Amino acid sequence: MKTILCLIATLAFPISARADQEAARLAELDAFWAEVSRTVKEGDFAGYSATCHPEAVLVTGTKKQSYPLAQALVRWKKEFDDTKSGVRESSAAFRFSQRLGDATTAHETGLLLYSFRQGDGEMKHEYVHLEALLLKKGDGWKIIMEYQKAPATEAEWKALE
């Protein structure tokens, strides 16, 4: 009986250690996405840019295009500036259906909810199917590929609660 208990404890420890490592990895990734959300809400363009790997790629399923994320950043800068100045209100939230990876890589699948209002206009909500590849380097997690696959629905968003 003692031998069986020792065997169970020996087998359970690596599983427990892996679960702890995975929980820590997911906590780091949650902090990454919280930082992305913060930068969008505050219009912090430099902060948002810092979450992106310099060679990151943006893929858009609706436009059937793939190009350097740096090009998209140039296009998005005005929205960040408008948000920072108070002319625009913006937010980004994320929910995930699948989170794969190891200590230095992540493949995140889920939904992005991007909400915005220009001036006194109506708040608009864009739900987007999203996949993201991230790498962890010395300065933390960086997105290396953002794939905005297709429009999503509010019902799909709520299903991931």
Structural description of this entry:
The chain has 161 residues and is an alpha+beta fold. The protein has one domain (2-159): Nuclear Transport Factor 2, Chain: A (Roll). It has helices spanning 2-42, 45-50, 69-85, 154-159, and strands spanning 52-60, 65-68, 88-101, 105-118, 124-137, 140-151. It has a six-stranded mixed beta sheet. The longest helix is centred in the first third of the chain and has 41 residues, at 2-42. It starts with a helix and ends with a helix.
Task: Itemize the secondary structure elements and their pairings.
Blueprint: H1 2-42, H2 45-50, E1 52-60, E2 65-68, H3 69-85, E3 88-101, E4 105-118, E5 124-137, E6 140-151, H4 154-159
Parallel strand pairs: 1-6
Antiparallel strand pairs: 1-2, 3-4, 4-5, 5-6
Assign a percent range to the helix content.
Answer: 40-55%
Choose one word for the global shape: globular
Q: What is the chain-wise order of helices and strands? A: HHEEHEEEEH
Low-confidence stretches: none
Query: Could you tell me the radius of gyration in angstroms?
Result: 19 Å
Number of DSSP-assigned strands: 6
Named CATH architecture: Roll
**And the CATH topology?**
Nuclear Transport Factor 2, Chain: A
Count of individual helical segments: 4
Distance between the termini: 44 Å
What brief labels describe this structure?
globular, 161 residues, 6 strands, Nuclear Transport Factor 2, Chain: A, alpha+beta, 4 helices, 6-stranded mixed beta sheet
Summarize the model shown:
The chain is an alpha+beta fold.
